[in-house]
Structure formats: C-alpha cells, structure tokens
Write a structure and sequence with these properties.
The protein has four helices and no strands.
Length: about 120
C-alpha cells in the first residue's frame, strides 16, 4: 500500500478549499479562506485521516506503523470511531452550538481521537 504524507495532503486540501472559495467569492477572500481552513476545518479533517489509518484504508506515516489497521486488533476502537463521527456531525451539520457546547464537543472529540493513536 502506498503511503501519503499527512502534511502534504493537508496542504493540498487547504489549497483546494482556498481555490474553491476564491472562485466563488473573489480573490479578496484568499487569505481568509486559508485561515478558516486552518482554524475551523483542519482538525476535523485530520481526525478523518486518523480514522482511515486505524481502519487500514490509508497508511499515513505520521500516524505510526503500529496504529495502522489497529481497529481489527482492538474492537473497542469501533465505538470510538462511531462516537467521533457523531461528534463531527454535531459540529458540521446540527446547527450552530453555543460556545460552551462547542467546547464540550471538541473536548470529547479530542478524547476519542486520542484513543485511536498510541
């Protein structure tokens, strides 16, 4: 299986987001698009990459060889992955949470994500 650099993929994803936003809203939004991706989207994106790695779908060297396809060895990680996806959905789709709710969601998301990687 071919490995990909998480850093390179993140850069490419941020650039694609920036290009899309600039195409729709104009060049004046370029810097803001990059800042938004870094501040609001990066961590959710990287959690998805960690899930891919642990499930054995994509090898990301930065997530460690030991963690690759680890879900097959530790079934309890399936519960953590399900919970991560629910939390991500609450942040992305379920409306605008209050600041306190967002803090709580992000804290739980971080706790679950930390279970994935040793």
């Amino acid at each position: 299986m071919q490995s990909r650099s998480l850093y390179r993929a993140a850069f490419e994803e941020a650039e694609a987001y920036r290009r899309d936003l600039v195409k729709r809203m104009g060049q004046g939004h370029s810097v803001a698009a990059t800042a938004e991706w870094n501040q609001q989207r990066f961590w959710l994106w990287v959690v998805d990459r960690a899930i891919e790695h642990v499930e054995g779908r994509v090898f990301w060297p930065e997530c460690g060889r030991r963690n690759f396809s680890r879900v097959s060895q530790r079934p309890e990680l399936e519960n953590a992955i399900r919970k991560l996806r629910k939390l991500q959905n609450r942040l992305q789709v379920a409306g605008l949470p209050t600041f306190k709710q967002k803090e709580e969601i992000l804290a739980e998301l971080a706790r679950c994500a930390n279970l994935l990687l040793e």
